[in-house]
Amino acid sequence: MRTKQPSLFEIEWLVLSKRSVYIFITLLLLGIALGSALIYFWRHGNPFKNDEATIRTGARFLSFEGDVRVVRAQTRETVQVNANTQLFPGDIVQTQTDGRARILLADGSTLLVRPNSVVTIRDNQIIDGGQQTNVRVAVERGQINVRTEEQTDKTNNIIETRLTESRLAAQTGASFGVREDNTEDIRVSTGSIETTTRSGEKTVIRAGEYLAINQMGNIARREHLLDVPIPTAPRDLERIIVRAGSSSSIVLRWQRPSTGTPAYYRVEVATSPFFVATGKVIERDQLTSTEFNVGELRPGVYYWRVCAVAPSGQVSEWSEPQKFSIIVAQDSARLVVWDVETEYVAGNIYIVRGRTQPGNTVRIAGRETLAARDGSFRLQVAIPAGTRELSVEAEDSQGHRERYRFPIGERSR
Description:
The structure is a single chain. The chain has helices spanning 8-44, 47-53; strands spanning 54-56, 59-65, 68-71, 78-80, 86-87, 92-95, 100-104, 110-113, 117-127, 132-147, 155-160, 164-168, 173-178, 184-190, 192-197, 202-206, 209-213, 219-224, 230-233, 238-242, 248-255, 264-270, 280-287, 291-297, 300-309, 322-328, 337-346, 349-356, 361-364, 367-370, 376-382, 389-395, 401-407. The protein is mainly β. It folds into three domains: 53-224, Jelly Rolls (Sandwich); 230-328, Sandwich (Immunoglobulin-like); 337-407, Immunoglobulins (Immunoglobulin-like). The strands form five sheets. The protein has an 18-stranded mixed β-sheet that branches. A five-stranded mixed β-sheet has the order 20-26-25-22-23, with no helix packed on it. A four-stranded antiparallel β-sheet has the order 30-29-32-33, with no helix packed on it. The protein is flat. Residues 392-413 are annotated as: Disordered. This is FecR family protein.
């Protein structure tokens, strides 16, 4: 039986048909992909343009002291802040009892986070090539101070708390406090703030005004701002010399607040600039005079601060801590500086740490500080680019000086 062989025409037709099917399938897949892309662009816009137009910048720490931590939004990991730490939307800043931090945000404003505070960076981005900036910070606990710079019409700087949402104008200085009893207060020293409370009240707080918000989110009190008393003595970094084996009596003095009428003052003296409980030496309340005598202070390094209380109960912010030292008269023994190390922060900013005799004044790059009771010192300084050595000068209570040079970036002994 003979089998019929296919003709050449039939073979060519079969090959041509398969090729057409492959081409058709390929074109169909390309069409589906193109259609999907067009639908995405129509619904969501150009993703590449969005990357160029919106820049989610990392807020950065200008300075920090003590225990400051960051909880990352993406991983929920808690990290200790260092010189290279950046903050991104959703990150949480936590300051402990001995911690505080100053943060630079996308619109050029600065945020000072006080001790025992919890703050979330909700938004921090630049849009449309710098034409618009969005900054939003939420205060969950504690106190922050905010200062804004010049702004465009498209700048949004918003502070949230549990009870309020506030929009800050340009050139505004203000503080926001969230207390443990779920009450809050807002102080405006310069500029103005548009505030909406949880109860729906809207108001504008202007320079020199104070607002207290109760637990229900209502404005409980509005009055003139009670300003901070100004410390006058002892001056910051002042040295008080005593004889060996003796103590000293110190008179603390301050000026009345420039605005507001205080009913009385509170004063604290401590061995820590954060006035933690274990470091407090003196606490006095209900002081009606602008001076207070502190007796029997032993040689060492101390810090003091003062605040005012109005008849209404409004409490001013604390004054900046003033540092003074009580030191024993020394002979002319040679001053020594050792254990010096530098830590890079950013730009030309470094933190310099080291040791010398207790109570010595240490000067580095135009700044100075007093060595603590254990002889340690710490300074944040600006060092010009290209500088290889650091000049450190130590001076004792009798005016004797010694100058040392240490390499930058290396631990020196």
